[in-house]
Amino acid sequence: MENDIFKALADPSRRKLLDLLNASDGRTLNDLCAPLDMSRFGVMKHLNILEKAGLITTKKVGREKLHYLNAVPIRQIYERWVSKYSEPWAIGLTSLQNELEGEANMNKPKNINRIAIKAKPEQVWQALTDPNKTSKFWFNCAIRSTWEIEAPFELWNGKKKEAEGIILDMDPPNKLVMSWRFISFPGTENDTQSRITWEINTHAEFHGVTQVTVVHDEFEQARNTATVLENGLPIVLSGMKTLLETGDTLSSS
């Protein structure tokens, strides 16, 4: 039965007929032929397919045969194939929005990126703190630090220092908070330091998967930095995912 419904809905002319009945139910064949650029026989053929699929019902009134939309199969298809996939994502996005908007500092802007990586939190932490690994996904930049609270860190691209900051807080392998300031990126010279928080947690639903969330905030006086990171951090995260899951880099063929 479901196959018949999907087949019936696949044709644009049949969807048009359903739209017509949805707008005004109980219509004759002549009523339904008028808006469609096809023969009377063609419309009858489409109506028969819709009726066979249970999407419409008919009723004889005198000499006329009236056609009515039957919404029940469409609702069943929605509940079976659409709602259970779309609603969890919608709920998840809404929950994230509510969580962020409900914070005490809700008026302060944030940029948030999140990705799921098929790796352990310890592997993600190593990728984030090992200069040999960061150079493979962080725009060729190697990160340097002693990895202690209040210790400095630097991001180097060869002999050029790209960014620097201080380790504000850390809880390996689950959390890393760092101040951030670009050194050589055009347009960021007058920006103050902002903050980047890495949250690395075992995924609640999928075994062997780690959820990585990166929050950039405290950039009220660093808008250009915020723009650079808003565009760059998704690429960094994608590169990290590719490296940890495949051993390749985004630039690999």
TrEMBL record:
Keywords associated with the record: DNA-binding
Claim: Nucleotidyltransferase is one of the keywords in the record: no
Gene3D superfamilies linked to this entry: 3.30.530.20, Winged helix-like DNA-binding domain superfamily/Winged helix DNA-binding domain
InterPro entries in alphabetical order: ArsR-like_HTH, ASHA1/2-like_C, HTH_ArsR_DNA-bd_dom, START-like_dom_sf, WH-like_DNA-bd_sf, WH_DNA-bd_sf
GO molecular function, one term: DNA-binding transcription factor activity
Residues annotated as transmembrane: none
HTH arsR-type domain sequence ranges: 1-89
UniProt xrefs under Pfam families: AHSA1, HTH_20
Keyword presence, Protein biosynthesis: no
Assigned protein family: Belongs to the AHA1 family.
Record protein name field: Metalloregulator ArsR/SmtB family transcription factor
